[in-house]
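Weekly structure sync, notes
Attendees: PL (lead), two postdocs, one rotation student
Agenda item 3: pending single-chain targets
PL asked that the sequence for the first pending target be pasted directly into the notes so everyone works from the same version. It is reproduced below exactly as submitted, 135 residues in total.
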Amino acid sequence: MKSIPTIQKYMTPSPHTIGAEQSLKKAHSVMREFKIRHLPVLKGGKLIGILTDRDLALVETLKDVNPELVPVEDACTAEPYLVSPDSKLHEVCLEMARHKFGSVLVVDNHKLVGVFTWIDALNAFSEILETRLKV
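Predicted structure, written out during the meeting:
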């Protein structure tokens, strides 16, 4: 029987990030340019949170919010779910489902090394079904 793979195999390595002081408008621009929905947020090179397309949509619906003036730090989710690259795929997926997380940040020695989204989880599931359960 094959062992359960780790997140490292399926994560997106070296994800795009954004500085905490950058504007929501800049975050939108980065997300559109790279066709992504999750942006880890850094302050002084240190991971402080994650900004999602849903966060942007919610904050921007608030009255008197100017996306050019509001910094990412004011809209991001602090204390995102962090895992190591060696975390087992099934454990991470279970936690994501249990808490309805759209993404997980992968950290090694306090350094961001990847992001794992539900799209990555579906790709992993598809690969496992195709390669391990093929009849």
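Discussion points:
- The mean pLDDT is 93.
- Residues 6 and 25 are 35 Å apart (CA to CA).
Action: rotation student to compare against the earlier draft before next sync.
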